[in-house]
């Protein structure tokens, strides 16, 4: 009878790798199943996910030297590094898996503690019950980068996942083995129809075509994913570009507005000065005493006589008259007195000036003290408004920075060029076979046709038709078995997922119609990214769930592309449905509506961990926040790990890498 | 990862329809199970049994 196995990760630590040398503990004292780890972009999220994958499947023989080298810390002088994973099996047994990296030889090896009775043993040793479940495909799916969830709806990722996890691909492998069997038999027989050299040539050609066909398919599958990622990146870059261009349009409008406001303020400022100057010219506005003095001056002017031109003529004429105006007879004494008084008469020019002044003073409507203060205050006000308008204009002009736009254009050009290469490859790959005999042909169909012809020639030459027919027949059977099995598996999977839809998507139920190559939705062409992500979760959780296995579900960027409702619903779905441990690497932008939903739904029985590197250029802002929150900063050389809930929720700042 | 039981069901159904023997079905099942348990095929021994047991219809 099979036994249930529950695997739980309780933490990990590492040294000499490109992520900080820290230790992360996942508390399970209250049987916490959920752990959210907040790590900023570029601070080790994806690397940690990769190292966790390496801990459950022996990658030492399949990992490339390049991938090992990528894990090395730039400050590593020892040439060695290690990653240790701490496990709890069936809630009791503690185990440890250690991966040792040799960066000089670019190799990796394993040590396991707690599984074997012998203590620490070399190599990766997993519990027996786990062995039958774990393989590379399972690990790739259980440790998932959720940003790739869309692939389930756009490429053959969905059906390939089913084939690998349900093992229908064994039937494909069986076909390969049958072909090998035939080839072995043909190898042992000599030809009577062909010379040994001719037969050898045919076999070499067959092997060459087989090899190229395999490489071509691998390249095609790899490029398809690359194409999808490039197109996605291009889409994101184009969105950013549009934002910048739109903001440029806004800036152009803003510039017009601020230029107008600036010229208006400049004019108002000038007018304020002119008005004040006019008031300055009116000296009676300056002070009341000065005004009084001027009025007295005018009054005194009134006491002065009539103008000289008028006065002289008048008195000259008067002394010629027999009588004065007053009626007295004009005698010599009167004439002498009139000639004397005549000297008191003003000069012509003086009279004119004084006359103007007198009018001015008398008619002057001088301003009140308050009015004068207001005029001068207005200069200050207008000057301030002028300065503000000038500052706004400078701000807007300074903001016109084309650096990012140029970078985006450059990136898009690079993507286009890569896409062009991929598309030409795909075009060649799908090209109809021509009557060519080229084992290096890039057309898959052409290689297939060539291969069939060569196989037939070899079969005839070696007289192995009976075995060849049997192998051919079995191959046809296995194709049919795989097709039927897949149909049934998909049918059941779709049924299981659809049963959960009303609960997971109560507001807008989106059902799955079928899974052909990709997931096909019922009665609709598309759905939002959040809705697709929820269906993607259901698909993976259903596909990965095995009645006897509880294995950690580890996700990078779990809710990046989702809206608030989707985040909450995914949080609720996970909390309600997931039987195994859930570990997610989160960005600060993913906390809202997801972390708090899980936190609440799980009655706070959740690990909320924050980790950041102190080596990055912008690390100081996180260090400062840690200092303020009283978080221990010096526990590790180049990183900080906090288990403080408030710090998890309050850490500010998003890094752009 | 354990093989999905639907594969065994389809295997039996298809081979029976093609009038193949129970022995052939058992040989293939045994091979798949041993592979699932992490064992390798022996092409010479295991596959040859299958090839010998298969009965290609004349039509």
Short description:
Helix content of chain A is 57%, strand content 12%. With 657 residues, chain A is α/β, with parallel strands linked by helices. Among the domains of chain A are: 5-133 and 546-650, P-loop containing nucleotide triphosphate hydrolases (Rossmann fold, 3-Layer(aba) Sandwich), CATH 3.40.50; 148-189 and 464-522, no CATH class.
Would you mind describing this structure in some detail?
- The complex is a heterodimer of chains A (657) and B (59).
- With 657 residues, chain A is of the alpha/beta class.
- Chain A has helices spanning 45-56, 65-70, 128-131, 136-142, 151-154, 157-166, 169-188, 196-281, 288-303, 308-320, 332-341, 348-363, 369-398, 403-429, 444-462, 465-504, 529-544, 564-577, 591-601, 620-628, 645-650, and strands spanning 5-15, 23-25, 34-39, 80-89, 93-102, 107-113, 121-122, 143-145, 512-515, 519-521, 549-550, 553-556, 582-586, 606-613, 639-642.
- Chain A is 57% helix and 12% strand.
- In chain A, helix 8 packs antiparallel against helix 14, helix 16 (465-504) crosses helix 17 and helix 18 packs parallel to helix 19.
- Chain A is elongated, with a radius of gyration of 47 Å.
- Chain B is mostly helical and 59 residues long.
- Chain B has one domain.
- In chain B, 66% of the residues lie in helices and 0% in strands.
- Chain B contains 3 helices and no strands.
- In chain B, helix 2 (22-36) packs antiparallel against helix 3 (43-53).
- The model of chain B has no long low-confidence stretch (mean pLDDT 84).
- The chains are: A alpha/beta (657), B mainly alpha (59).
- The interface between A and B is medium-sized, with 37 and 31 residues.
């Amino acid at each position: 009878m099979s036994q249930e196995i529950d695997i739980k990760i309780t933490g990990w630590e590492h040294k000499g790798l490109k992520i900080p040398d820290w230790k992360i503990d996942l508390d399970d004292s209250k049987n916490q199943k959920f752990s959210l780890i907040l790590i900023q972009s570029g601070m080790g999220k994806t690397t940690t996910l990769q190292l966790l994958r390496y801990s459950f499947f022996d990658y030492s023989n399949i990992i490339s030297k390049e991938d090992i080298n990528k894990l090395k810390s730039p400050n590593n002088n020892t040439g060695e590094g290690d990653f240790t994973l701490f496990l709890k099996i069936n809630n009791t047994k503690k185990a440890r898996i250690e991966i040792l990296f040799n960066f000089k030889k670019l190799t990796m090896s394993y040590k396991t503690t707690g599984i074997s009775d012998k203590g620490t043993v070399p190599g990766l040793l997993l519990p027996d019950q786990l062995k039958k479940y774990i393989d590379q495909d399972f690990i790739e799916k259980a440790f998932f980068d959720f940003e790739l969830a869309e692939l389930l709806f756009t490429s053959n990722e969905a059906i390939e996942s089913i084939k690998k996890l349900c093992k229908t691909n064994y039937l494909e492998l069986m076909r390969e083995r049958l072909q090998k069997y035939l080839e072995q038999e043909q190898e042992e027989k000599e030809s009577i129809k062909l010379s040994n050299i001719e037969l050898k040539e045919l076999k070499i050609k067959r092997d060459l075509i087989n090899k190229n066909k395999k490489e071509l398919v691998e390249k095609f599958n790899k490029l398809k994913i690359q194409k999808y990622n490039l197109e996605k990146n291009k889409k994101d870059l184009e969105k950013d570009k549009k934002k910048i261009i739109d903001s440029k349009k806004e800036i152009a409008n803003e510039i017009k507005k601020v230029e107008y406001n600036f010229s208006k303020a400049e004019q108002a400022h000038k007018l304020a000065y002119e008005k004040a100057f006019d008031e300055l010219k009116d000296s009676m506005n300056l002070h009341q005493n000065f005004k009084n003095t001027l009025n007295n001056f005018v009054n005194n002017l009134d006491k002065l006589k009539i103008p000289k031109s008028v006065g002289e003529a008048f008195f000259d004429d008067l002394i010629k008259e027999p009588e004065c105006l007053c009626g007295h007879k004009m005698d010599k004494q009167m004439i002498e007195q009139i000639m004397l008084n005549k000297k008191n008469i003003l000069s012509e020019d003086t009279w004119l000036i004084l006359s103007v002044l007198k009018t001015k003073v008398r008619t002057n409507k001088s301003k009140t003290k308050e009015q004068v203060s207001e005029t001068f205050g207005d200069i200050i006000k207008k000057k301030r408004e002028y300065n503000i308008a000038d500052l706004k204009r400078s701000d807007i002009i300074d903001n016109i920075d084309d650096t990012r736009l140029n970078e985006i254009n450059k990136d898009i050009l690079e993507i286009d060029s890569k896409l062009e290469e991929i598309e030409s490859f795909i075009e060649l790959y799908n090209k109809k076979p021509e009557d060519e005999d080229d084992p290096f042909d890039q057309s898959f169909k052409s290689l297939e046709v060539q291969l069939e012809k060569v196989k037939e020639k070899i079969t005839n030459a070696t007289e192995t038709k009976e075995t060849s027919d049997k192998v051919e027949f079995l191959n046809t059977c296995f194709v049919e078995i795989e097709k039927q099995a897949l149909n049934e598996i998909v049918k059941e999977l779709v049924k299981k997922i659809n049963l959960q839809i009303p609960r997971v998507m109560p507001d807008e139920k989106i059902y799955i119609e079928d899974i052909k190559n990709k997931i096909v939705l019922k009665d609709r062409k598309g759905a939002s990214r959040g809705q697709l992500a929820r269906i993607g979760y259901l698909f993976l959780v259903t596909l990965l769930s095995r009645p006897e296995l509880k294995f950690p579900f580890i996700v990078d960027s779990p809710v990046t592309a989702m809206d608030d409702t989707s985040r909450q619903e995914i949080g609720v779905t996970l909390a309600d449905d997931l039987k195994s441990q859930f570990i997610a690497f989160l960005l600060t932008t993913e906390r809202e509506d997801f972390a708090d939903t899980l936190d609440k739904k799980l009655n706070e029985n959740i690990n909320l961990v924050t980790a950041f590197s102190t080596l990055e250029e912008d690390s100081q802002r996180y260090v400062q926040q840690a200092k303020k929150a009283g978080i221990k900063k010096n526990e590790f050389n180049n990183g900080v790990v906090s288990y403080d809930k408030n710090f998890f929720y309050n850490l500010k700042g998003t890094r752009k890498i | 990862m354990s093989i999905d039981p639907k594969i065994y069901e389809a295997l039996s159904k298809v081979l029976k329809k093609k009038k193949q023997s129970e022995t052939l079905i058992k040989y293939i099942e045994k091979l798949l199970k041993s592979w699932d348990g992490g064992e390798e095929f022996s092409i010479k021994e295991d596959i040859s049994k299958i090839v010998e047991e298969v009965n290609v219809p004349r039509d």
